[in-house]
Structure formats: C-alpha cells, structure tokens
Fold this protein.
Amino acid sequence: AQSVTQLDSQVPVFEEAPVELRCNYSSSVSVYLFWYVQYPNQGLQLLLKYLSGSTLVKGINGFEAEFNKSQTSFHLRKPSVHISDTAEYFCAVKRKGAQKLVFGQGTRLTINP
Amino acid sequence: DTAVSQTPKYLVTQMGNDKSIKCEQNLGHDTMYWYKQDSKKFLKIMFSYNNKELIINETVPNRFSPKSPDKAHLNLHINSLELGDSAVYFCASSQPRDADNEQFFGPGTRLTVL
C-alpha cells in the first residue's frame, strides 16, 4: 500500500519570500506523484505531477517540485510567494495502473504581508 | 462549462434524515469518485465507479450508497445521517486510459448534521 506524509501542517511565510512544502511517500512499487491546491471554500486543483523523466517538474502559478527517489520525497517549492497563494496544499500518490489516489494530510500555507 | 459539478453546495440537516448529493461531469471520463474531507482537512476516497460499475469501495458504513445512472453521473445517498457524517464531500472524475489518470475535482458539498 502507498502512504504520504506531509511534514508540516502549517507554513507561514512573508510575501515574496521563498517557500518549500515537504512531502514524503512510501511505496514498494512505482508511483505517480501529484500536488493539488485547495483555495478557501473551493475544490482541489492540480498544481503539477511527476510521471517519469526529468525529476524537476514545473507546474502552474510558478510552483515546481523535485522528485527524489532515494529520499522518497516530492517537495514543492516557489521562489517568491504571493498573498493569493494562501491555500491548503495536498501531496498525493498513485500506484501506476491503479485508480486510487492517496493523499497526505495537507499543509496550510499562509502568506503574511 | 463546469467540468465537474456537484449539488447542493451546502446541506444542513438533522440527525436521522436521509439525503442525497449529486455529481455530474462533462469531461467524457469513464471513472468517477467520491471523497470525504473531514474537519482536519484529511481527504479519503470512499467509492469509485468505472462505466457505471463499482470498482473501489473503501471501508464505508453501508448507510452510504453510491449510484451511477450513467457514466457522467455519480450520486451519493446517505441514510440515517449521524453527527460524524458532517464533512465536505468531493466528487472527482478521471479517464483511466490516460497514463497518469489525473483526477478532476468538483467544488465540494459541505454537509452539516445537527
């Protein structure tokens, strides 16, 4: 079975500062990795995904993530955050060929002016 | 042109009542899902249907019964509602033929049981 751990439940940062949201996963088989964002009172929206190939993945809104197989991590980064990035961020994993998406506990990113 | 829509957006009801949540997707996807997000924001899959056939059924009380009249719709009926059913329920859809099977989510239905 797959599992995902998001190491920080809350991350406060100042506007225009860089941010990293950490995600570690556990799986004995090959997986796909995803980051979703949930803005207040909205559904989930895909930020980016890692399927294969280059370990650095670029997504929407200036976010990127790096897949590290040896550390089983898929940390999300943004070099300069904006107030509008305030949201809940979810890391998720899916076994290749499977339907089931397993989510981490979420990280609340709060941007302070 | 909403991709995945859910109704209602908010649902407030008394304990013991029966209620339904509806979901529709216009993406032409074959697979649909129901997720529950609890008060701590934890998201867990409940059910998945592929072409009207149940393929994922996690450990969910049998008071919850999904129904898929066609592959564009997946409804969730809940009998004898309990306080612990209060949560946000998300519908999602995906196309299994796509390599990554990316899931597209609806806006959620916030259920409050009093």
Notes: The interface with chain B takes residues 32, 34, 36, 38, 42-46, 49, 51, 88, 90, 94, 98-103, 105-106, 108 of chain A (CB under 8 Å). Chain A has a mean pLDDT of 93. The first strand of chain A starts at residue 3 and ends at 6. The radius of gyration of chain A is 13 Å.
